[in-house]
Amino acid sequence: MSYDSRILVDAFQGDLTTLAELQLRCGFSDHRAAAMCCVSPETYRRWRSDRTPNPTAIRLLAILAGYVPWSGWSGWEVHNGRLFPPGYTRHGIGPGDVLAVHYQNQLLDLYRRQLRASRPDREGPAMREGPRLGRRGRK
Q1: Residue 116 lies in a domain
Q2: pLDDT of 72 over the 80 cut
Q3: Do 37 and 57 form a contact (C-beta atoms < 8 A)?
Q4: What is the pLDDT of residues 9-66, one digit of tens each?
Q5: What phi and psi, each to the nearest 5 degrees, are found at residue 122?
Q6: Are 60 and 12 in contact (CB under 8 A)?
Q7: Cα–Cα distances in angstroms (integers) from residue 92 to residues 71, 88, 89, 110, in the given order
Q8: Do the bridges between strand 77-79 and strand 82-84 make them parallel or antiparallel, or are there none, so unpaired?
Q9: Residue 58 domain boundaries
Q10: What are phi and psi of 16, to 5 degrees?
């Protein structure tokens, strides 16, 4: 696991020392971070100096910084609206990419059905399996 991913995991698990790093990763000012945590800017500044933030606020900032907390998504991260599988640092998967996979599967299914419908019924099983090779790999 990379250092970047480790920070997010540690933060989500309650490491209270990760507050400043999470704020930096989110690109938030003190005022914006305080607003996202539903506290006053003074409370947020105190959290930054005393290192005693609310654990729930840390978990929220970890998610906003890209951590994906759901089971089955270990190592996945979200940055700028794109989903990144473990180990990927470039490009990511956008919402349109996810929808395109479903659409592509629908088109493939339609193509397969049309292909089956266009085959004459007189083809036997041997024709569907492809050519059989004789001795030494020749037809």
Answers
A1: no
A2: yes
A3: yes
A4: 888 888 888 899 999 999 999 999 999 999 999 999 999 888 688 899 999 999 999 8
A5: -75, -10
A6: no
A7: 20, 7, 7, 29
A8: antiparallel
A9: 3-92
A10: -75, -10
Q: What is the model's pLDDT at position 107?
A: 93
Write the CB contacts of 30 (distance below 8 Å, at least 6 apart in sequence): 23, 41, 44, 45, 48
Q: Which two tokens stand for residue 51?
A: 């290192």
pTM of the model: 0.61
The answer to whether 58 and 15 have CB atoms below 8 angstroms apart is yes
Instruction: Find out whether 75 and 1 touch, Cβ atoms under 8 Å.
Output: yes
In the chain, the number of structural domains is: 1
Quote the CA–CA distance of 12 and 61 in Å, as a whole number.
8
Query: Residue 82 phi/psi, 5° resolution?
Result: -120, 145
Token readout for 30 is: 């003190």
* Residue at 134 is within a domain: no
Q: What is the pLDDT of residues 83-135, one digit of tens each?
A: 998 888 888 898 888 889 889 999 999 999 999 998 876 555 555 555 555 55
Using an 8 Å Cβ cutoff, are 94 and 82 in contact? yes
Q: What is the pLDDT of residue 133?
A: 55
